[in-house]
Amino acid sequence: MDHPTTPTQARPARSRLHRWLLVIGGVTLVGIGAVGVFLPGLPTTIFLLGASWCFARSCPWLEERLIRIPLFRPFLIYLDAGAQMPRKVVIWTLVVMWCAIAFSSVFVTLGENPRPGLASTIVAAGLIGSFFVLRLGRKRVGVETETKR
Prior knowledge:
This protein is an all-alpha fold. The chain has one domain. Helix content is about 65%, strand content about 0%. Helix 1 runs antiparallel to helix 2. The longest helix has 23 residues, at about 15-40.
């Protein structure tokens, strides 16, 4: 039995409607990821990975275009099989992310109109983002990387 060369091999959508729903979902995820680049506490990488997954199954040229956007390029290098974030980058990412989350949460809970629900949402998004950052930072067992000879 042949195994795909990458852990997630693109599988085309089953129907035209399914394909369009995946395209719409991918575009939505790119939009949220773009907001996450500028908004502290909102993870970017997970939304871009989701968009790439949607595009790979619906419209591969959109995935290629996503990868070529200079704003997102630093986040998408981790799509390659066996890609791993260096430990120092993981630590810095988590420190900066949680400082921004703490600042944002305190900012929205203080003042005349406190919004603890929004602060909880920011923290929840940060926990989800942290999970994926930590996951990209650990070594993957069973994934072979190509070596140059």
